[in-house]
Amino acid sequence: MLIQGILVYDIVLTVHILAVVLAFGVTFAYPVLDAYVRKSSPGDLVTLHRFQVVLTQRLIQPTMVVVLLAGLYLALDRYDLGKPWISAAFAILIVMFGLAGAVFTPSEKNLVVLAERDRQSGNGPSPEYEAQARRLAIFGSVWLLLVIAAIFVMTVKPGA
Question: In this structure, what is the dihedral angle of CA atoms 79, 84, 88, 89, given to the nearest 10 degrees?
């Protein structure tokens, strides 16, 4: 029977992979969404940034916790936490937690305020808004590279 062959490890691995998709997959769409809104409807930048705040707080950060907890279970069940690829993956995730809390959440909230102010003024995005948006885009690029690096080390398992 198929059910008998399924282990807790397999279920946790599935949860881990789903959490990775939910936590990080959406962030790959952010540059496309930003470019689309800027070109088609700059007045909707407020809505875009409000949406980013909601996604960060209600989807990305909670599922990152699931990624961490499931990853710990998987590592402790089958591997050694001292393996370079496991240590690298956990280090990347910790950096990403820091970026989410210290950079993304405050920057996204600030962009909501700036975009709302700029929309009310009717002058389009201000230099202050643009500077904050550029900063967030740079950190967003770093974030995406970290996701790719984590996927690489989890797939290739260097030093395994």
Answer: -20
